[in-house]
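To fix ideas, we close by showing one paired sequence and structure record:
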Amino acid sequence: MEVTVCICVLLLLSIYQSKSDGAFTPQDNYLIDCGSKSSITVGRRIFSADTPSSNLSIAANEEIFANTTSSNLQVLSGIYLTARVFTQQSSYTFSIQHQGRHWVRLHFFPFSYQEYNLTSAIFSIATQDFGLLYNFQLQNSSRVMKEYLINVTEDTLVLTFIPSSNSLAFVNAIEVVSVPDSLVSDTAQSVPLSSPYSGLSEHAFETIYRLNMGGPLITPDNDTLGRYWNPDTSFLAVKSLAKNFSISANTVVYQGVITSETAPNLVYATAEEMATANVINQNFNLSWLFTVDPDYQYFIRMHFCDIVSSTLNQLYFNIYINNDKVINDFDISTVTHNTLAAAYYIDFVVVNTPTGSKNLSVKVGPALDMTSVPPNAILNGLEIMKMSNSKRSLDGSFSPNSSIRSNKNSKVGPIVGSVVGVFVALGLLTVIYFFCCHRRSHTKLSTITWLPLPLHGGHSETIGSKGSKVSAGSHASCGPSNLGRHFTFAEIQEATKSFDESLILGVGGFGKVFEGLLEDGTKVAVKRGNRSSEQGIAEFRTEIEMLSKLRHRHLVSLIGYCEEHCEMILVYEYMANGPLRSHLYGTGLPPMSWKQRLDICIGSARGLHYLHTGAEQGIIHRDVKTTNILLDENFVAKVADFGLSKNGPALDQTHVSTAVKGSFGYLDPEYFRRQQLTEKSDVYSFGVVLVEVLCARPAINPSLPRDKVNIAEWAMHWQSKGMLGQIIDHHLVNSINPNSLRKFGETAAKCLADQGIDRPTMGDVLWNLEYALQLQETSMLDDPDENSANRISEIPLRFSQPEHFGNSTIERGSVASEEGSEGATASAVFSQLVNPHGR
């Protein structure tokens, strides 16, 4: 026991001493000792006095600073000895320098001060966007910290305290601290297994459990993000089945986006492993049990670091959540690029717990049929966070947009009425502010300079589908005319027969898609935003902004939109043949020929090439995949879904720094590691599309053996051996010209290069795909020269963009308008009609 304690102390000291001057420094770092008029040092952190400043304002009806000097509180931190008390609705407003995720930590300890008994306080707390606590009351005299992770998208964060009827509110200390953008991505693996979960940035999180497996308590002094990590022992289902293991914290290796901000190295330097490593029992596992609220979804992050193996590829195990096998034969060596003691984590979202159950379990156990290595399994750290529900609440039905219901026993009716009145007024102001800002954003769109591609022939009036003028029943657009037709909600209802469920074409992350029929007989696809959706106003606005600027034969075009009655509705031309993916696998549709597939890839490449080169900065799609390539009645391909799109870097920049968003299996690894987005990120994703078209299987299939799960890795393994033909869709066997296949495979391989600088431009990709098509059509027998531009005269090649040959690249903004005008009749579409999850 003494040896274990010494090891833990030494590990903690090593963490303390190893913190470098280059550690993460938050742009927003508010530590407030509420109810105190002087600063106080707690460990290595300084909590400031509770006074307004240029970056902090406090709105309260009266200033009540409470304190206690009870001798039994000497063991408590100083921040719990004072509190600010509120008798009416009050707020703290923090100026935000860095928009993104922030820790919001609220500290509570109830005590009595004069006539204020904090143990009887009942109150609610909300930000502008999320309800945090509803009718909260501390049940006993113990300190409590509530920790939230909130995506702040405005230049202020307002924490509002609302006392319940005939009660009061209080807080002892507040922390508002920004975190790195890379801490939590927008996607995770869903449980039970289905399409990847997307839209995490739309949720607020509340930390429920954070555990250091096999190790000691870690305090904020030893965590660069100020977190507590508790020992896991009390959560083990059977303690005798586990044993802890540790190494020196300084030997932990961080790679890519995984840093000490992900988790301290002490978390990765300790682990729980199987107590008896030579037990061959398929049911043997390490289990941790937790109590949760079954009405919520949960974000789970599992931390791994192979500190128990002496050599690589000696540790294979399965991972379970709620008895669902979420990872089969997990090999840490593979994901850490064959590096021992390298930190790694996996994110999951539990979309539903077992019916009526308040239990959540996490298990790791040995893989089946392990004959070459001893069975074992480990876990180094675990985080479980509650996710905000459809009402944007983390506590029951309370949300920032709902009035606080009055207490039936209230004796202070005027106060309650005032609170309700304030919320009603705030609600009205919010609606007014939304519409004003929305219209201002429309006005800004008209200042963006694009190619001379006038919308619908350059008419200034608002235009309906297929160039027809808007009928008298339609509202004029609230922005410039190039935003498309502004439909009334009544028109949308009529077109969709009041959103008849029988007309549903698909269900996406944004909401449902309905088939509709306009008054002139035009068939359309209507995407209706779901108010409880993972996606929201950001995607809605981005889609409108992008599509209002784009016109190209191979890009979708927006017919119009509706924003009445707090609705978010987009209208696109109906696409008869739906997404490309549905023609490759999983639906039973007739297989496409190799020429059809090449034509579709070429059309998609033309669309992406236009995106990248058609403006001064260009546009990066950021979510290229087979569900976002849609086919019209003639199988003409159109790139769809611009909800995640970003303007490209300026001429004096090489990349755009932004949080990682996209879809599992298609994400550019360089973008994932560095959060540096470039046009080459689209090129990588398109490379995945190419092999998906060739092999007719999903980009990620967790049910397959390890070496086949990721289609890009699997296909490039065969490509490197010159045997790509061994894994192509069986419908294509004996129908592909070998030279066409080789050129296609080489193009895909270049797109999938690990480094962006090694990937071709979309113009080069387009050229090579057209060349592959010519090789297929002419059935060349000779092995084509790699520098095939030298032999163009030998083949009757056709190019849609003759100004781009070989390795030459046209200047941005110089794309001829002829290509865009091909599709000036507004061939539009709704994106992600089938299986659209995965952002």
